[in-house]
Amino acid sequence: MARFDIPDGWTVQAYRFAIDPTQQQHTMLRSHCGAARFAFNHMLTLVTAVMDQRAAERSYGIADTDLTPSIGWSLPKLRKIWNQRKHEYAPWWAENSKEAYNTGLDALARSLDNWAISRTGLRAGKPVGFPRFKTAARSRPSVRFTTGTIRVESDRRHIVLPRLGRLRTHESTRKLARRVEAGSARILSATLSQDSRCRWYVSFQTLIAGKIRPVHARRSPDPVVGVDVGVKADALLVVAAPDGRELWRVPAPKPLAASRARLRALQRRAARQHGPYDSVTKTRRLPSKRWQATTARIGRTHGRAAAIRRDVLHKATTTLAQQHQVITVETLNVAGMRSAGGARKKGMNRALADAALAQIRQMLSYKTRWYGSDLVEADRWFPSSKTCSGCGGRKPNLTLADRVYECEHCGVSIDRDRNAAINLARLGDTQSSVGEQGPADSGSAAGRGARQETDPTQVGDAAGCEASTRLYTTSGGGKAGTVASEGMAA
Ligand SMILES: [Zn+2]
Questions:
Q1: Catalytic residue among 99, 113, 222, 330
Q2: What domains appear along the chain, each with residue ranges and CATH number?
Q3: Could you tell me if residue 219 is left (phi over 0), alpha (psi between -120 and 50 degrees) or otherwise beta?
Q4: CA of 379: how far to CAs of 224, 331, 332, 352, 383, in Å?
Q5: Residue 326: strand, helix, or coil
Q6: At 351, phi and psi to the nearest 5?
Q7: Are the C-beta atoms of residues 470 and 1 closer than 8 Å to each other?
Q8: Residue 402 is a catalytic residue
Q9: What is the DSSP string of 104-148?
Q10: Radius of gyration of the chain (CA)
Q11: Is 469 helix (H, G, I), strand (E, B) or coil?
């Protein structure tokens, strides 16, 4: 249900920039986000009241035709009712752009829709509950502008938005500005949001022409690679070729380890302070100001660690998708492994969260589409770590502590992550036919042991499915500005 048609050869992509609003703009932004929340909550109250009224009438045996008329919850209907009611219930409405209220109503229409479809069983994934009220504490402040003056200034340091005017960006907007100036990008909308670290971002949803493997990208002589996601801090990613060479090793960035040490210290401090739970009387209590300050710092440190990790992963996955034709990754049942208890839990928990395999797969799945390469996912039971890359023997009792794979059959001694990467590369090699016929034929690759994520025949319109999830604002990683599928909190 796309609200617009994507022209042939164009892709939807988000460009996200941190912004530095002035104090006055900050106040206006807060006001707009509050207005969106107000519209959402106000109309949710009305929808719920009408539904309850109809249910009550039905229980009295009133015929369906005589019930209080139901109000539709499509966006145009919600908007129409809101416009009739805003003068009475929100006499201050003119202080904010109409786009603010539209943001809230759009979110409500979508969440009601998701709930209704989920109830019929037609929606994939977990069941969706009835929308809850938005609170300032729970919801992430955001507002989306779809009409009016939305512009990236040519000085590459400012953007222009309706009502808010000129906002300074924290970083250069050149990546988007260049494309806009060259006519290969069209801005569809701009979403402003504030993250948990209180920084404001603008995310431009844009149509990009001809998003393909850039000509300047160095093509690696190794078309097929396997990528192992390290669980220990020494390597975040290890990339190897099917013939056993290790091509690339992405070390875990130093600031990440530093922030982890910082987190441990902060968490110990928070535990000593007057927290919200009294373990003696087993009751909740008002936490101290100092506990709150420490907790806020823990949140900021987590946020910084996540940002560092995301940056490294974005750079690595872009290089991978641009340079290689077939990229094989493993599929870990991360949720299942995290719920495993005992002593394993602590280390695995942190390592897995850090290694962020899920993040890598998600980034690779759209970047391989952009750059015309293929992602092969080894299935969950593919023993990439436990198989010897030298002789094919198995070592079923390999533990995470074993950093080196020592084969008792052929005597090979090899770095654990490298061994796994080689095995994955070989799987990718057998699963794809890139060596013989080129990428156009690798659509038939999906088979036992692997699942082809990207169908190369659909490269041209790959963005279609992303956009058809209805104008979700996509927010991606920092400077590069990329589409990721973490939608706005609805
Ligand atoms: Zn062996």
A1: 330
A2: 1-211+460-490 (no CATH), 224-253+299-454 (3.30.420)
A3: beta
A4: 18, 6, 8, 18, 9
A5: strand
A6: -60, -40
A7: yes
A8: no
A9: HHHHHHHHHHHHHHHHTT-S-SSPPPPPPPP-TTTSPPEEEE-SS
A10: 26
A11: coil
Q: Are 490 and 129 in contact (CB under 8 A)?
A: no
Give the model confidence (pLDDT) of 172-181 as tens digits: 999 999 999 9
Q: What's the CA gap between 46 and 66, in Å, rounded?
A: 19
Between the CA of 76 and the centroid of ligand 1 the distance, in Å, is 65
Identify the bridge partners of residue 326 per DSSP, sorted by sequence position.
Answer: 224, 374
Residue type, 284: R
Interval between CA 415 and ligand 1 midpoint (Å): 13
Give 378 Cα–ligand 1 centroid separation in angstroms.
21
What per-residue confidence (pLDDT) applies to 434?
52
Contact 226/427 with Cβ under 8 angstroms? yes
Distance (angstroms) between ligand 1 centre and the Cα of 389 equals 7
Cα 381 to ligand 1 centroid, rounded to whole Å: 20
Distance 395 CA to ligand 1 centre (A): 9
- Is residue 228 annotated as part of the catalytic site, yes or no? yes
Rounded distance between C-alpha atoms, residue 216 and residue 171, angstroms: 24
List Cβ neighbours of 187 (8 Å cut-off, separation of 6 or more).
Answer: 150, 151, 152, 176, 180, 204, 205, 206
User: Which one of the listed residues 99, 377, 417, 453 is annotated catalytic?
Assistant: 417
Q: pLDDT tens across 129-162, in order?
A: 999 999 987 888 999 999 888 999 999 999 999 9
Q: What is the pLDDT of residue 467?
A: 32
Sequence-ordered list of residues with C-beta below 8 angstroms from that of 322, at least 6 positions apart, any chain: 213, 214, 217, 367, 371, 373
CA of 394 to the centre of ligand 1 (A): 8
CB 314, CB 477: distance < 8 Å: yes
pLDDT one-digit tens code per residue, 160-170: 999 999 999 99
Handedness of CA 218, 220, 226, 228 (dihedral sign): negative
| Residue 417 is among the residues annotated as catalytic for this protein | yes
- Residue of 113, 222, 228, 374 with catalytic role: 228
